[in-house]
């Protein structure tokens, strides 16, 4: 036996088994280049920590080994987050922190929990420049999930040890949950200990085939060739019992596990609870593959007579969402579920080609589906609106998905119309509901708003003008967002519906469906105030909710949107809010980002030294002692890079100007620092000015050139 084997024999049995399993599963899949020159023992510890993080992702999110390995972000500047997985369809984010111990005694202290919570807050504020390069491939997914109205974040603390934490650590987690979960659960946390990982290892070794029973009522059909197939219906309660006994093991060969309470799955649950007798008509059913089938008849042995099928090594390859939703609904009202039936297709793979299971799984999960919007095309009112567009405006109104969308000046789609009319609705709660789930636009039930928007119906001119105002606000916000950073940029990106609603309240609906230029003139005046609306909203958000509240939670809450809209409109009466132009005063010009401008013009040579200077009295007071301890803490050198042009003298790492200011604040332990910073005003080129000053000089030269002789 070699030395490593001897060493492993000295470990606790559970730890030894978990270690071997992690090594077998993740060897060669994890990036270890950052520790390639480190001692072998250190490399092993890093590997096991990263493998543990990957395994934690796999356990909580139900992903493949490869997906779990790709989720690992452990390394320098990981901000306490060792792995990240994003489920795009459900806007769920899993953040993992892992602790390995050969002795089986790993634990989480307050410092580690503080680290991951700080990392969480940076992610929520889209401060990706504070993270290492392993996060770069995740940025688009994180952006989309964090901006989604149904975003959920799961903190997972995984350790080869026990899961007990100190009261101080528990308080930190509870406080974070309280900050994020005001009115709706956004953040939760869980622990995985040595026992959880050992249990997972045992399940992997001892995995038993799943066998379920399906009871088919009268009227089923069996096709013996080319592969034995049964078609019929089963009681929904029987599907619920499958999930109760086997859980996710039923779906190991499906393309995805159950996605939780998505809007589609909520609709399934509502249908089961409210109208179980008709559920069969509205559900696509379930497809099950199995290795063999044992048939037991209740009475006469004939096709179509009641029968019980025992499906050996069964796996649900289509309908995972239905099965999980049926189980959830059964827990709420078992009596109702007993009345529902579900279509079932069973395919026996005995004698089938090896790749048949994979081909069936892919085919049954890639077919086109019908969206709620598609039913609007059947509404006769929409046909009237389309005719009005053509006859009154000479423009196109597109109803169906798949139709060629018109150019912006030539018309709009029914989807654009619905969003614009929702923003124009007098109650700001409507935009919150749309932000949370846009399917409410098409629902005519008690939870929907389709009738309120289109029941009139609105005239083509009213819709066209509403769409024009919405487009104008969105275009203005997109331009503004390009010149902002941090939380301000997030607001500009995410609050378009709410700001459009406020713009509609300023403009008013009087005359919107009457010919003439009066309403159009009011619209143009409102669009010029978009920047003021944005900064008024930013100020109200800070005043009412603080700097760490999750914006997605605020914008999908009806009462919050009402309060914010009312507060912003009130502030506009005297033009007192930051950035709001007074009557007769032009909105200030939005300047391009300083760094790209400086790099584009080659204004600063590579290697030029820059000096950090705090911009406020609180900042100077908080940082003076720490900065004075080491002169290089003040210094950085310039490289002509659009994203990270500063190399800090302390660690030789590259940062954006704002990113390095945040790093300095963090290293100095300034806990009361602002949530945003204009970093280009904090870094000075000696004898020349700040980065912002140098960029302004370039703009001034451009302005003179554009306004000079011959300029138009």
Write the layout of secondary structure elements.
Blueprint: H1 3-9, H2 13-26, H3 40-61, H4 65-70, E1 83-87, E2 92-99, H5 110-124, H6 139-147, E3 152-159, H7 167-180, E4 187-192, H8 194-206, E5 212-216, E6 221-223, E7 229-235, H9 236-246, H10 263-274, H11 279-282, E8 286-290, E9 292-297, E10 307-312, E11 315-318, H12 320-332, H13 334-337, E12 341-348, H14 356-364, H15 380-393, E13 396-398, E14 411-413, H16 414-424, H17 429-436, H18 450-454, H19 460-481, H20 486-494, H21 496-507, H22 518-527, H23 530-545, H24 551-555, H25 558-571, H26 594-601, E15 609-612, H27 617-628, E16 635-638, E17 646-648, E18 654-655, H28 657-667, E19 683-685, E20 689-690, H29 691-707
Helix pairs in contact: 2-3, 2-8, 5-7, 9-12, 10-12, 16-19, 16-21, 17-25, 19-20, 19-21, 19-22, 21-22, 21-25, 23-25, 26-29
Q: What is the terminal separation in angstroms?
A: 85 Å
Q: What is the number of strand segments? A: 20
Low-confidence stretches at least 5 residues in length (pLDDT < 50)?
A: 1-6, 576-591, 703-712
How would you describe the oligomerization state of the chains in this entry? single chain
- Main β sheet profile: 6 strands, antiparallel
Q: What is the CA-based Rg, rounded?
A: 30 Å
**What class do helices, strands and sheet pairing give?**
alpha+beta
Please, how many helices? 29
The strand line-up of the biggest sheet is: 18-17-16-15-19-20
Q: In one word, what is the shape? A: flat
Average per-residue pLDDT, rounded, comes to 83
Strand content: 5-15%
Helix fraction bin: 40-55%
